[in-house]
Design brief:
Elements (H helix, E strand, L loop, with lengths): L1 H9 L1 H21 L2 E3 L1 H11 L2 E4 L3 H6 L6 E2 L5 H4 L11 E4 L6 H10 L5 E4 L2 H7 L7
Parallel strand pairs: 1-5, 2-3, 2-4, 4-5
């Protein structure tokens, strides 16, 4: 541990550049798939801005419980079905998956296809159900 502090003391510019690059990487990765939002923000977007909720889980998980008025677009079949969602290009789109890991990749693809406002539910359906918010079966 003492060697780490010695290295930092001897190379402050190198360490500073490293920290700046790590921060830039984190910021870039977070924005690449759309803004990350919490469950309360999602509720507000659906109620006030007529946001479209796209659930990326498979059909079995979707049937077990999903957000009201969510549209199911399984992650595995995204490439075959993107044309179905062109009608939502000008509306806010919120992507939801099981834990939040797939929504970033799909969000980036939707942004490249011209969707103007793409967001991701932070924590996915796990976060939604953890907040005791309603699901439709």
């Amino acid at each position: 541990m003492q060697q780490v502090f010695e290295f930092i003391g001897n190379h402050p510019i190198l360490v500073g550049v490293f920290i700046a690059l790590v921060i830039a990487l984190i910021v870039t990765e977070r924005k690449k798939g759309g803004e990350s939002i919490n469950a309360q923000t999602l509720v507000r977007l659906v109620n006030k801005a007529d946001a479209v909720v796209i659930d990326l889980r498979d059909k079995k998980e979707f049937s077990a419980g999903h957000i009201a008025s969510a549209v199911n677009l399984p992650y595995a079949s995204f490439a075959n079905r993107t044309g179905e969602f062109n009608q939502y290009k000008e509306r806010p789109v919120v992507l939801v998956c099981k834990m939040g890991q797939h929504s970033s990749a799909i969000g980036g693809k939707l942004l490249k296809e011209g969707f103007s406002d793409v967001k991701r539910l932070s924590g996915g359906m796990t976060e939604w159900m953890g907040s005791n918010l309603p699901v439709v079966k």
